[in-house]
Description:
There is one protein chain. The chain is built from 2 helices and 4 strands, in the order βαββαβ. By secondary structure, the chain is an alpha+beta fold. It has a 4-stranded antiparallel sheet, with helices on one face. Helix 1 packs antiparallel against helix 2 (39-50). The chain is globular.
Amino acid sequence: MYIIMVYDINEKRVNRVLKIGRKYLDWMQNSVLEGEITVAKYEKLKMELLDIIKKDEDSIIFYILRTTRYSKREIIGQQKGGSKLII
């Protein structure tokens, strides 16, 4: 499956969340990671993040796509992070 992870984390924890996210996904730009991931690795990613975040202060959203077949990415302005054009 293909995952887009978007997060808004307190600055005390943001670097740890980014480090964990980059173990599983590709960094695209500030607070956005994406990539192909197995269900098992997705569950592991969520567990690692839950150990760090504070649910009453932080927010992580996962967009889960079964396939990128009908997806398209359009970038306006400066491109940051990865250059894959999968989504």
